[in-house]
Each structure stands twice: as structure tokens, then as C-alpha cells.
Write a structure and sequence with these properties.
The protein has a two-stranded antiparallel ribbon. Helix 1 runs antiparallel to helix 7. Helices cover 63% and strands 3% of the residues. It has 248 residues and is an all-alpha fold.
């Protein structure tokens, strides 16, 4: 695969991932998408739970297995190393698209906030969660996290700078602000159905029992480099070596 094709591949993987994230924001609130979390084919309760567990398990396995160094070592014998992160992003996107497609709604209302003040307030909190997620990706280098910077460096023949780990802004206050943003968005909703509750609980358990590296397929060495090299000086904070281990 030529450097140009690797670049195009990385950009396409990024755009697909971005589209999936945007769709997910609409999916979990049943807004502006063909199928929301409470829409689609209805199944008997046990069948719906079984299908949802299967698609969530596939998602977890993909993120866990492809994040392992041993898997990456073998995988980069098959694909160019510069395309490894983009391939992970593509696989994660495909698996999550499968989840969105096959998710089965589970009827039953846990809460339905119709109050003219608290209903919009919950929606605002939902949007705030997504904003935290998006901002957090840029704090540790959005384009490196999604594999674009790796394919661009490969195209230009640029050697990644040496890693220099530090924690900017939100990462001083919260270990995994991206995960926090997801959790806020999934739980802050005016209408919480049993299916939505099942989804929110499942992803909360997953995000809170995995480190950032395992949950997102690991932040690559170049991503930790960019975390310091690509953020404004006023956003940076260099922890002690002992504290740094807590963020691995």
C-alpha cells in the first residue's frame, strides 16, 4: 500500500468514525436519526436482552483484544504500522455500527421528565456530556487519537517526536474525561426507558472497569507525545513519575 493510499485510508476511517459518533449522539436521545435507542424491531424481553448482550460483548471484545500489544505486534506484520491506529478505529466503528443496527428496544419507562424546566435542563446536561467528550479528544490530540496524524506523518515522511507524557486541563481533575463525558450523556435524558437504562448501565460498567488505554484501544506513543506537544502551554501540567503511572 503506497503512502498516498494509506493517507486516504486513514482519512476515510476517521470520517466513518466521526459519522458514527454523531449518529450515536442522536441514537441515544432518539433525535434526527432513522433509528433511535427506543426504536426498531421489538422482540420478546429475553430475546431483546440476549441480542443486546451479544452486540455489546462483540464491542467489548474488539476493544479489548485489538488493544493488546501482542495483537498489535502480529497485526502490524499484515498491515503497515502507520495504518494500525486507523484500522483499530475502522474496526471499532464497524462493530459499533453493528451495535446501532442490531440494538433491540426494551419497553418500559423508568422516568419521563416533562417539566418545562427540568426536561430541557437534562437535555442541556446531555449536550454538555458530549461537549466534554469532544473537548477531551482535542486535549490529547484528536487527530492522533483517531489515526489521522499517523497516516499524515507517514505520507510526509515525518518521524514522530519522542513521547513526553503530561495531563492538560480536564485530565488534572478527572482521570478519564472522555469516559466521563460519555457517561453523563448516556444518563442525562428526559426520557429513560428500560432499554436506555440497560445500555447506560452496561457502558458505564465497561468504561469504569477498563483503563483509558484498554477502553479506547490504547493511546499510542505518538498520541501521548502529541498530548504535550500539541496543546497550549497554559493547558499543560506535568505530573510526577509516580502519578504518571496512574494514567497509563
Amino acid at each position: 500500500m503506497t503512502k498516498f493510499l494509506i493517507l486516504i485510508y486513514g482519512i476515510v476511517c476517521y470520517l466513518l468514525a466521526l459519522a458514527t459518533v454523531l449518529y450515536t449522539a442522536g441514537f441515544e436521545e432518539n433525535l434526527l436519526v432513522p433509528k433511535g435507542i427506543d426504536g426498531g424491531t421489538s422482540e420478546p424481553l429475553l430475546v431483546a436482552i440476549a441480542i443486546n448482550v451479544v452486540v455489546l460483548t462483540i464491542f467489548v471484545l474488539q476493544h479489548t483484544l485489538m488493544a493488546r500489544p501482542a495483537f498489535k505486534a502480529q497485526w502490524t506484520r499484515v498491515i503497515p504500522e502507520a495504518a494500525e491506529r486507523s484500522t483499530f478505529v475502522l474496526a471499532a466503528t464497524a462493530v459499533f455500527a453493528l451495535f446501532l443496527w442490531q440494538w433491540r428496544p426494551i419497553a418500559g419507562v423508568v422516568w419521563n421528565v416533562e417539566d418545562p424546566l427540568w426536561g430541557p435542563a437534562l437535555m442541556a446536561l446531555n449536550f454538555f456530556g458530549w461537549a466534554i467528550f469532544l473537548w477531551s479528544t482535542f486535549l490529547i490530540d484528536h487527530f492522533d487519537l483517531f489515526g489521522v496524524k499517523q497516516v499524515w506523518r507517514n505520507f510526509r515522511g515525518i518521524t514522530p517526536p519522542a513521547p513526553d507524557f503530561c495531563t492538560p486541563t480536564l485530565y488534572k481533575m478527572c482521570r478519564h474525561p472522555m469516559m466521563l463525558g460519555f457517561i453523563i450523556a448516556f444518563w442525562a435524558t428526559p426520557l429513560m426507558t428500560i432499554g436506555h437504562l440497560f445500555f447506560a448501565f452496561a457502558v458505564t460498567v465497561f468504561f469504569t472497569t477498563k483503563s483509558t488505554g484498554r477502553a479506547l484501544g490504547s493511546v499510542s506513543p505518538s498520541a501521548t507525545t502529541s498530548l504535550c506537544n500539541s496543546t497550549p502551554e497554559s493547558w499543560r501540567w506535568s505530573p510526577s513519575p509516580a502519578l504518571s503511572l496512574g494514567f497509563a
